[in-house]
C-alpha cells in the first residue's frame, strides 16, 4: 500500500453508464455505495428492512448506533469527497471538531500519546453521533437524481439468469405483509451488514461461499449518554483509553455537543462491563484518568446504560473465490466486520467506496473480480492492524506466529517512545487513522527515534 491510502478518487470519465443499481441495506456502507452508483447508473434503489427515521434517531437495524462511534480521518476524507459541505454543516451546527493533539487523550495499549505539537495532517476529526451522521448522509443520498429509498422492505433472495452466471435482481418483501416482488437490476450491492446474506444466496445459486477468517474477541460494549459540566475536561473533546495486556478493558468518552457526551466502556472476554448504573461508573474508575473519573461522577446521566455484544471479527475472502456471478457485489461489514474498538468500519466502507468508483470508471466488465481484489487490499491493512492489536492481549485466542510477536514487541516500544515524541505520535496516529501505510513506521528514521525513545531511561508515563 502506498502512503496515499485515502487519496481523493478522481477516476475520470466512467466507461459505462446507465442502468439500474440496487443497494441492499441503507446503513453507512449502503449509503456510500448508493452515492457512488448514482454517478454512473440512471437509477439507484436503496432498500432497507427498517423504517428509516426522518430525524437523526437510533433504529433497530443499527443497534451499534447507541454506542460511541468515531470516524477516522480516512473516513472523514471520504465524506468530504462524496458529500462536499456536509462536515462544515456539522461544525456550524455545533458538532465538536478535534484539530489539536491537546484536544485528544489517546492511550492505546497503556501508553498516553504525546499531546504536544500540531497534527501534520490537516484532516480533523468530526464528532457527530452515529445517528446524526447516518441521518445527514441519508438525507443527501435521498436527494441525488435517480435515487429512490425504499424502507420497511426486506431482501429475501437474488434473481439470476437460468445458469446462475449473472445476478439480474433481487426478491424483496414489504414488512407490512405485502406479497414478494422482484426488483430487476444491472447491479446488486449487498450492504446488509455483518450477517452477510450473500454467503447463503451464493449457495442457492450453486456457488461456493467465501472462506471466513474469524478472531473471537468476545467484546461487550456498555454505553451511556451524559451531560458534563462545561469545561469539565478542559480542552479535551475525546478520551480514548485502549485495553492493555494487564487490563483487557477500555473506555471512550466522546463529546457530541457542548455538554452532551457519550461514555462507552468495553471489556474483552470475562471482563465485561456491567449495565447497573453504579457498577458501570465503578468499572470506569481503573481505566480513565482520575480527573475524568471525577467529571463522570459529577455528570448527569441522560439515559440508561445499554449493552451490545460483539463475539468475533469476521473477514469473508471474496477476493479468493474462483467463481462469482456477475452483477453482484458485497460491500461494507458484509465483507469484513472489524473489532469495533479500533473505529475502522465506517472508514473502511469509505475506502471501499473509493475503490468501487475507480472500478466503475474502468467499465463493468468483470466488476466483482476487480472490486473484491482492490477492496481486499484496503481491507488487509486495517484487518492486520486490528488483529495484531487484539493478539497483543492474552485474553484473545489465536495463533501468534513470530512476525506477529515481533511486530507487537516493536509497537510496544514505538508507543513507549511516542509518549514523549510528537513526531512518533503523529506517525502512529496517521497509520491508525488509515491515512498512511504501516510501513512508514518501519522506515530507518522512525526505527531510530523508537530506539532513542526507549534508551532515554525515563520511566514510561502511565496510560491513565
Ligand atoms: C458496537 C459497535 C461500535 C462501532 N463503532 C464504530 C466506530 O467507532 N467507528 C466506525 O467507523 N465503525 C464502528 N463500528 C462499525 C460500523 O458501525 C459499521 O462498520 C458501519 O455501520 C458500516 O456497516 P454496514 O453499513 O456495512 O452494516 P450495518 O451498519 O450493520 O447496516 C446493515 C443495514 O442492512 C439492513 N439490512 C439487514 N438485512 C437486510 C435485509 N435482508 N434486507 C434489507 N435490509 C437489510 C439493516 O437494517 C441495516 O440498515 C461499530 C460497530 C459496532 C458493532
TrEMBL record:
<dbReference type="Pfam" id="PF00890">
    <property type="entry name" value="FAD_binding_2"/>
</dbReference>
<dbReference type="InterPro" id="IPR003953">
    <property type="entry name" value="FAD-dep_OxRdtase_2_FAD-bd"/>
</dbReference>
<protein>
    <submittedName>
        <fullName>FAD-binding protein</fullName>
    </submittedName>
</protein>
<feature type="domain" description="FAD-dependent oxidoreductase 2 FAD-binding">
    <location>
        <begin position="83"/>
        <end position="205"/>
    </location>
</feature>
<keyword id="KW-0560">Oxidoreductase</keyword>
<keyword id="KW-0285">Flavoprotein</keyword>
<dbReference type="InterPro" id="IPR036188">
    <property type="entry name" value="FAD/NAD-bd_sf"/>
</dbReference>
Amino acid at each position: 500500500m502506498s502512503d496515499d491510502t485515502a487519496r481523493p478518487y478522481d477516476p475520470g470519465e466512467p466507461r459505462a453508464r446507465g442502468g439500474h443499481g440496487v443497494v441492499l441495506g441503507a446503513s453507512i456502507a449502503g449509503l456510500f455505495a448508493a452515492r457512488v452508483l448514482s454517478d454512473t447508473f440512471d437509477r439507484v434503489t436503496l432498500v432497507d428492512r427498517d423504517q428509516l427515521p426522518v430525524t437523526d434517531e437510533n433504529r433497530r437495524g443499527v443497534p451499534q448506533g447507541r454506542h460511541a462511534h468515531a470516524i477516522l480521518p480516512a473516513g472523514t476524507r471520504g465524506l468530504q469527497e462524496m458529500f462536499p459541505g456536509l462536515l462544515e454543516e456539522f461544525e456550524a451546527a455545533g458538532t465538536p471538531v478535534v484539530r489539536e493533539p491537546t484536544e485528544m487523550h489517546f492511550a492505546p495499549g497503556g501508553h498516553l500519546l504525546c499531546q504536544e505539537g500540531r497534527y501534520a495532517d490537516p484532516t480533523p476529526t468530526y464528532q457527530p453521533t452515529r445517528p446524526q451522521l447516518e441521518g445527514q448522509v441519508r438525507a443527501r443520498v435521498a436527494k441525488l437524481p435517480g435515487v429512490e429509498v425504499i424502507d420497511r422492505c426486506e431482501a429475501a433472495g437474488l434473481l439470476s439468469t437460468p445458469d446462475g452466471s449473472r445476478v439480474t435482481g433481487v426478491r424483496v418483501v414489504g414488512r407490512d405483509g405485502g406479497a414478494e416482488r422482484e426488483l430487476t437490476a444491472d447491479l446488486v450491492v449487498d450492504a446488509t451488514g455483518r450477517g452477510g446474506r450473500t454467503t447463503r444466496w451464493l449457495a442457492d445459486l450453486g456457488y461456493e461461499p467465501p472462506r471466513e477468517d474469524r478472531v473471537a474477541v468476545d467484546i461487550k460494549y456498555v454505553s451511556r449518554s451524559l451531560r458534563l459540566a462545561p469545561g469539565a475536561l478542559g480542552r479535551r473533546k475525546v478520551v480514548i483509553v485502549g485495553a492493555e495486556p494487564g487490563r483487557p478493558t477500555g473506555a471512550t468518552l466522546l463529546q457530541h455537543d457542548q455538554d452532551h457526551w457519550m461514555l462507552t466502556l468495553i471489556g474483552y472476554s470475562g471482563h465485561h462491563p456491567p449495565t447497573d448504573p453504579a457498577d458501570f461508573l465503578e468499572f470506569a474508575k481503573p481505566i480513565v484518568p482520575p480527573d475524568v473519573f471525577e467529571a463522570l461522577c459529577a455528570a448527569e446521566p441522560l439515559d440508561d446504560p445499554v449493552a451490545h455484544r460483539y463475539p468475533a471479527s469476521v473477514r469473508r475472502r471474496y477476493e479468493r473465490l474462483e467463481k462469482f456471478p456477475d452483477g453482484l457485489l458485497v460491500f461494507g461489514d458484509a465483507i469484513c466486520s472489524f473489532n469495533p474498538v479500533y473505529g475502522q468500519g465506517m472508514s473502511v466502507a469509505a475506502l471501499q467506496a473509493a475503490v468501487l468508483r475507480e472500478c466503475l470508471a474502468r467499465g463493468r466488465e468483470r466488476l466483482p473480480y476487480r472490486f473484491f481484489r482492490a477492496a481486499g487490499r484496503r481491507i488487509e491493512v486495517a484487518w492486520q492492524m486490528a488483529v495484531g492489536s487484539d493478539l497483543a492481549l492474552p485474553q484473545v485466542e489465536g495463533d501468534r506466529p513470530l512476525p506477529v510477536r515481533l511486530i507487537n514487541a516493536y509497537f510496544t516500544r514505538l508507543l513507549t517512545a511516542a509518549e514523549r515524541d510528537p513526531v512518533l505520535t503523529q506517525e502512529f496516529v496517521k497509520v491508525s487513522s488509515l491515512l498512511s501505510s504501516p510501513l512508514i513506521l518501519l522506515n530507518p528514521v522512525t526505527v531510530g527515534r523508537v530506539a532513542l525513545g526507549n534508551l532515554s531511561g525515563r520511566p514510561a508515563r502511565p496510560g491513565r
